[in-house]
From TrEMBL:
The keyword Glycoprotein applies. GO terms for molecular function: hydrolase activity, hydrolyzing O-glycosyl compounds; xyloglucan:xyloglucosyl transferase activity. This is Xyloglucan endotransglucosylase/hydrolase. It is found in: Secreted, Cell wall; Secreted, Extracellular space, Apoplast. Catalyzes xyloglucan endohydrolysis (XEH) and/or endotransglycosylation (XET). Cleaves and religates xyloglucan polymers, an essential constituent of the primary cell wall, and thereby participates in cell wall construction of growing tissues. SUPFAM superfamilies: Concanavalin A-like lectins/glucanases (SSF49899). GO terms for cellular component: apoplast. It comes from Oryza meyeriana var. granulata. The active site is at E119, E123.
Length: 302
């Protein structure tokens, strides 16, 4: 079990003082330890709501806590950007009545015009106490999203840390939960479906209020009497895509390279989707009745 998270107010004097102490301690421990290990403190930066987030040590794991109250939430991003990599991070989500809150993990490029916007999105939609979270995923390429798939997690994501992963290589974007693949977005650019292939992205995380839509379609509002809410992130591991010997980078890998199937256990994917898929845009024939299903939803003609 994870150590109990610190119970702190989101902001205010007590929080500020505590944060200074924690940061000083993290710096000290990081200096004392071999810093080769992935470190949230070293590898990410808080980009909004810096007074609603703090780093702390939990055993050996330096952890970033994001906080949300009625004023605002907070968010971070990796200091580095990557073109093709595997991203793994451990997260523990807002406990108890998390209705209206959304905790996110996503890949996104720097500011680019919307027509070039790429994004790989995991959004954990909170719920009232005792009811399950929904994991909402989406993929944007060249400014077009609308590729929603939703899942029910097979564990309580608020009791302990679980590993959420995004594998991004030239042929696939794969989303995994505790090592189990739940989604595979294939590069179908040859058939006309957009796929992120050319710009670096950073990994981001955030905690915010979305009670206009998140929980049971927006009908359940955030209960601010239960605030502040906390979500925790630790052990970010980024593994850049490694090309085969003699190949300069993954973008030059021959299309049929086995390199890009390594993380893809098709049987595990099928089973996870049979058991945990709630919604798939590719199965939503009603939604696409006028236009036909998006090209990537139809099987390739062989
Ligand atoms: C919340 O719980 C209800 C009832 O179990 C469920 O229908 C819903 O999908 C859950 N998740 C969200 C985000 O509303």
């Amino acid at each position: 079990m994870a150590a109990p998270p610190p119970l702190l107010p989101c902001s205010g004097e007590r929080c500020r003082v505590w944060r200074l102490v924690v940061v000083a301690f993290v710096v000290f421990v990081a200096a004392a330890m071999d810093t080769a290990a992935a470190s949230m403190y070293d590898d990410v930066e808080v980009v909004w709501g810096s007074d609603h987030s703090f780093f702390y040590m939990d055993g050996e794991a330096d952890t970033l806590a994001l906080c949300l109250d009625e004023t605002h939430g907070s968010g971070f991003r990796s200091k580095d950007a990557y073109l093709y990599a595997r991203f793994d991070i451990d997260m523990m989500l807002v406990a108890n009545n998390s209705a209206g809150t959304v905790t996110t993990l996503y890949l996104m490029p720097e500011d680019v015009p919307w027509e070039y916007h790429d994004e790989v999105d995991l959004e954990f939609l909170g719920n009232v106490t005792g009811e399950p979270y929904t994991l909402h995923t989406n993929i944007f390429a060249n400014g077009v999203g609308g590729r929603e798939q939703q899942f029910r997690l097979w564990f309580d994501p608020t009791c302990d840390f679980h590993t959420y992963s995004i594998v991004w290589n030239p042929k696939h974007i794969i989303i995994l939960v505790d090592g189990v693949p739940i989604r595979d977005y294939r590069n179908e650019a040859a058939r006309g479906a957009a796929f992120p292939t050319w710009q670096k992205m950073r990994v981001h995380g955030s905690l915010w209020n979305a009670d206009d839509w998140a929980t049971q379609g927006g009908s359940v509002k955030t209960d601010w009497s239960a605030a502040p809410f906390y979500a925790y992130y630790r052990r970010l591991r980024v593994t850049p895509c490694a090309p085969s010997p003699g190949v300069a980078w993954c973008g030059d890998e021959p299309p049929e390279s086995p390199r890009f199937k390594q993380e893809m256990d098709a049987a595990a994917l099928r089973k996870a989707r049979e058991e945990h898929l709630l919604y798939d845009y590719c199965a939503d024939t009603k939604r696409f009745k006028d236009t036909g299903l998006p090209i990537e939803c139809t099987p390739p003609i062989s």
